[in-house]
Design brief:
151 residues; Aldehyde Oxidoreductase, domain 3; four-stranded mixed sheet; 3 helices
């Protein structure tokens, strides 16, 4: 069994993740990549900054992977979520699920990303072409930027 998760600060090495789950036992390998896109809610995006409650995020991501392995019979799964400043096109999350059968591999990958969006204590602040920035929830809806603390 090869189940691994990580919250990372550097670029995600997709080829290394694919190699990590490689096994002749698997008939299907599903790769999901989340990228920083150029538009959200009709606004031009210039980049995203991800922040997290580190230890809690790592524990929760590991719990999601464990639940996925148990529920779908996945023996080979890796998921990494990136923190920090990301530019357009950068990979923010990678999930690789491998299974002897394609249906379970697809379902496992979908389970992980949906649970990450629902449960992971990671927040994103989008930067926009007009110079503004806003915190955005998991559903992609922008909120007013929190007021800066006065010193």
């Amino acid at each position: 069994m090869s189940i691994r998760t990580a919250i990372v600060r550097g670029a995600i090495d997709v080829a290394a993740l694919l190699a990590e789950v490689e096994s002749t036992a698997n008939g299907a390998t599903i790769l999901f990549l989340g990228h920083v896109r150029e538009m959200n809610d009709g606004r031009a995006v210039t980049g995203i900054e991800y922040s997290a409650y580190g230890e809690m995020a790592e524990r929760e991501l590991a719990a999601i992977a464990s639940e996925c392995a148990e529920h779908f019979g996945i023996a080979h799964l890796v998921a990494e979520h990136r923190l920090g400043a990301l530019e357009l096109g950068d990979v923010s999350i990678a999930i690789v699920a491998a299974h002897p059968h394609r249906a379970e591999a697809y379902e496992a990958s979908r389970f992980v990303i949906e649970e990450v969006k629902r449960r992971l204590p990671i927040w994103k602040r989008e930067g926009y072409a007009d110079g503004a920035s806003e915190w955005v929830n998991a559903g992609g809806v922008a909120h007013e930027q929190p007021a800066q603390e006065q010193q």
